[in-house]
Design brief:
The longest helix is centred in the first third of the chain and has 30 residues. This protein is mainly alpha-helical. α2 packs antiparallel against α8, α5 crosses α8 and α18 runs antiparallel to α19. It has 21 helices and no strands. The chain has one domain. The chain is globular. Belongs to the glycosyltransferase 87 family.
């Protein structure tokens, strides 16, 4: 299939670059023509993507209907058979929200929580949960209150999903349609209302939008808020540190780090001072938690019979080694990697080595994958693997919870589902790594761009690299006398710059 040339200043149309997008467009009339009117009109890419995302979110809510009608509790096995489980109604009663207990400050009765003394979520997520409980009418049948609490949370999470897709659409000025990968991701529709992860995911996307606009302090403030909702966004500071090291952008990194620390402290410090035991529960629980569903460690433990009591240490060592490898890759790559590529790799590494992989953790990677590797084939392969795991975990829980009848997926089948998830994530990591090592394969850089969503990093010359380069293209300053003429990869070929 051949694709038409496009104005280097115009927004990138996926049907001009992607075979899958071009084939899929046949459902709505085929790829856009050369003479089509593509100027300013109400149906902008951002609005279209937002509408699609809201439609997919609504379909995800419909998929939870069997559990909603039964209140999630009347038939516990049914919530697994129908793959419509959600933590939200369970924690409404199990963490004291139904009894008007204040998170982190009030101790949860053992008879209610099953052994959890305090809420085991970061502070900003706890605030989100508490606000939803204020909006839930009290009184009446508990099942009805649980339904309303889930519905209120679903509405608030839909706002987070809207923020997410809008931010992803605006991160790269010329590639707003890449956000359609996020909007149409089946795993987003299936997992959006399982837990509260979309809050941190949307804040992280907003932070990356600020970085793409060369506003490092605003990036840091939003990243600190995201970290106050979930731990994983903090990992993005690692790739950013190495990229700024290679580009010599220490001032911008310091501004980003300062904003992160300040906003995280603003949220956490009051609770830390006034309710230290409740505040620390998230961190102690994360450290003490044993191996759990979805992790490679669980499969190893089940296959060998070894409880792997030191899995936490193993995971930390592998994570440290992987981060060191990503740092070396960043400093050695022929061109400085794009921020989104490294952000995806480091979060994927955390997921692959972690002690647990809950189904909703896929939300962490969806926007990063869309920015790092905006190719429909690779994205859909990975999503198929994640949907397979989504079904696998619920059918496995149905099997273990159905008594002697054993309806569902046995242990061996569940282990295959975990392997499919791991292999799918590794596949996407592999193609991102290939794009870094062979930048000509990176679809985002086909127009000669450096890092269009990289903010101050976009177009910055390198000041520190490892090894010598054959290709002294954009993002690497070769020593005097060792420079070669470049065609198609230099500043003159770039349509615009966001640096400064």
């Amino acid at each position: 299939m051949t694709f038409a040339r496009q104005d280097p200043q115009a927004p990138v149309r996926p049907t001009d670059q992607d075979e899958i997008a071009a084939s899929g467009s046949e459902l709505i009339g085929g790829p856009i023509g050369r003479r089509a009117l593509t100027g300013r009109h109400w149906w902008s890419p951002v609005r279209v993507v937002l509408l699609v995302a809201m439609g997919m979110f609504a379909l995800g809510m419909v998929q939870k209907l069997p559990c909603y009608e039964s209140g999630w509790f009347h038939d516990r096995t049914a919530q697994y058979v129908h793959a419509c489980y959600s933590d939200i109604p369970h924690l409404y009663t199990g963490r004291g929200f139904a009894d008007d207990l204040t998170p982190y400050f009030d101790r949860i009765p053992q008879t209610v929580s099953g052994g959890m003394e305090y809420l085991e979520y970061p502070v900003l997520t706890g605030v989100f949960m508490e606000v939803a409980s204020w909006l839930t009418p009290h009184g009446g049948e508990m099942m009805h209150r649980q339904q309303i609490y889930w519905m209120v949370n679903a509405g608030m999470l839909m706002v987070c999903a809207a923020v997410l897709v809008v931010c992803v659409a605006r991160v790269h000025r010329r590639r707003p349609w890449d956000a359609l990968l996020v909007a149409l991701a089946p795993a987003l529709a299936l997992t959006a209302t399982i837990n509260w992860d979309l809050l941190a995911v949307s804040l992280t996307a907003a932070a990356m939008l600020m970085w793409s606009r060369s506003r490092p302090f605003a990036f840091g403030v939003l990243l600190g808020l995201a970290t106050a909702a979930k731990f994983y966004p903090f990992l993005l500071l690692g790739p950013l540190l190495v990229l700024c090291w290679r580009a010599g952008r220490w001032r911008e990194f310091g501004s980003a780090l300062g904003g992160t620390v300040l906003s995280w402290l603003a949220v956490n410090l009051p609770v830390l001072v006034l309710a230290r035991d409740g505040w620390s529960k998230f961190y102690t629980f994360s450290e003490e938690r044993g191996i759990d569903f979805g992790s490679i460690w669980l499969v190893v433990s089940q296959r060998t019979g070894d409880p792997l009591e030191h899995a936490n240490t193993y995971a930390m060592v592998l994570m440290a080694l992987g981060c060191a490898g990503i740092a070396a890759l960043t400093l050695y790559a022929p061109r400085r990697p794009r921020f989104a590529q490294l952000a995806f790799l480091v979060v994927a590494l955390f997921i692959l080595t972690n002690k647990v992989y809950s189904p909703q953790y896929v939300l962490w990677l969806i926007p990063l994958a869309a920015l790092a590797r905006p190719r429909w084939r690779d994205f859909l392969i990975w999503q198929a693997c994640e949907v397979a795991y989504y079904l696998g975990i619920w059918f496995y829980l149905a099997y273990t919870g159905s008594g002697d009848d054993h309806h569902g997926l046995p242990t061996e089948g569940y282990q295959i589902a975990v392997a499919v998830h791991l292999l799918g994530t590794l596949y996407l990591c592999a193609v991102v790594l290939r794009d870094i090592l062979v930048p000509e394969r990176d679809v985002v850089r086909r127009d000669g761009s450096d890092d269009p969503s990289g903010g101050v990093l976009d177009g910055s010359p390198d000041v520190f690299v490892l090894g010598r380069r054959r290709d002294h293209g954009y993002g690497y300053e070769a020593p005097e006398g060792d420079r070669e003429p470049i065609t198609g990869w230099g500043p003159s070929s770039r349509p615009h710059s966001h640096a400064g």
